[in-house]
Design brief:
GO molecular function, one term: oxidoreductase activity
Largest sheet: 7 strands, mixed
Strand order of the largest sheet: 3-2-4-5-7-6-12
Protein name: Pyruvate dehydrogenase subunit beta
InterPro entries: THDP-binding (IPR029061), Transketo_C/PFOR_II (IPR009014), Transketolase-like_Pyr-bd (IPR005475), Transketolase_C (IPR033248)
Number of strands: 14
Pfam families: Transket_pyr (PF02779), Transketolase_C (PF02780)
Helix content: 25-40%
Keywords: Oxidoreductase, Pyruvate, Thiamine pyrophosphate
Radius of gyration: 20 Å
Order of helices and strands: EHEHEHEHHEHEHEEEEHEEHEHEHH
Strand content: 15-25%
Length: 325
């Protein structure tokens, strides 16, 4: 095993797949000459050249649409958005073309394309640069949605996403690109749609994904000092969702807390809550608790931003609530 940064894991995944398959290319703003806005494509222009690592204009609808057409004609594009906040400019291409083309063409066209880049808050970036869109894209049939939380998961899942014959939304975080973790030296992939039990416990299940899961680990460490053992499930893939992993954990712990960095209305947490009460309601010993951002646009003030974002204190409070402590 080697220890690398999250951005390096992303770069390795793309580079290894591009060496394996010449139909794969990377396109986006600053991905080539600048080595990526977050240096996730460092060195790729030198290795693969400007025809396969392509700097685009500031025109998300344009380069997303071109890549959907390229995918229909035998290529396997990786489209990088500098932030998924900017993907809204291209959402028509993603939702109305990439996601629906297989069905509308009667199966004549697959769209093997990955849309990737950072999602959610990254500090003091203001309301228009701090939104999470996992639940938006997961709402659309035809899209797969992946949100890794570690370098190991990022590399293995991204390789699987690139090989997938359907469009995949692959969401990262600006605040995780410098995170370090162990990654195997040899090639590996992680299947989409499989959650990971990151911490084993018997008292309460915490389900989360992406960078906000770090707050769950902080909370679990503190709760362990009080004798409360938390089981932490990292969804990794939002759609398709590994419901059985959640159900099996709830059957063991009888309590569920869901931690998500998104607005509460129509959230991923809302869907999980429905699925659990529909399928394993009789195992619950307490009402499900969900922790989300405040139901407002993201503030700029650091004091307000701290209150807006979920944190470990919120997790501890929710766990104690389901434990009746």
């Amino acid at each position: 095993m080697k220890t690398i940064q999250f951005r390096e894991a992303v770069c390795e995944a793309m580079s290894e797949e591009m060496r394996r398959d010449e139909s794969i290319y990377l396109i986006g703003e600053e991905v080539a000459e600048y080595n990526g806005a977050y240096k996730a494509s460092k060195g790729m222009l030198d290795e693969f050249g400007p025809k396969r690592v392509i700097d685009s204009p500031i025109a998300e609808a344009g380069f997303a649409g071109i890549s959907v057409g390229a995918a229909m004609n035998g290529n396997r594009p990786i489209v990088e958005f500098m932030t998924f906040n900017f993907s809204l400019v291209a959402i028509d291409q993603i939702i109305n073309n990439a996601a629906k083309m297989r069905q509308m063409s009667g199966g004549q066209f697959n769209i093997p394309i990955v849309f990737r880049g950072p999602t959610a808050s990254a500090g003091q970036l203001g309301a228009t640069h701090s939104q999470a869109f996992e639940n938006w894209y997961a709402n659309c049939p035809g899209l797969k949605v992946v949100v890794p939380s570690t370098p190991y998961d990022a590399k293995g899942l991204l390789k699987s996403a690139i090989r997938d014959d359907d469009p995949v939304i692959f969401m990262e975080s600006e605040q995780m690109y410098g995170d370090k973790g162990e990654v195997p030296e040899e090639e590996y992939t992680i299947p989409l749609g499989v959650a990971d039990v990151k911490r084993i416990g018997k008292d309460v299940t915490i389900v989360s994904f992406g960078k906000i899961i770090k707050e769950a680990f902080k909370a679990a460490d503190e709760l362990a000092k009080e004798g409360i053992e938390c089981e932490i499930i990292d969804l990794r893939t939002i759609r398709p969702m590994d419901r059985e992993a959640i159900f099996n954990s709830v059957k063991k712990t009888n309590r569920l807390v869901i931690l998500e960095e998104a607005w509460p209305f129509a959230s991923v947490a809302s869907e999980i809550t429905y699925q659990v009460q529909e399928n394993v309601f009789d195992y619950l010993d307490a009402p499900i608790q969900r922790i989300t951002t405040a139901d407002t646009p993201a503030p700029y003030s650091p004091t307000l931003l701290y209150e807006w974002l979920p944190n470990a204190h919120d997790v501890i409070k929710a766990v104690k609530k389901v434990m009746y402590k």
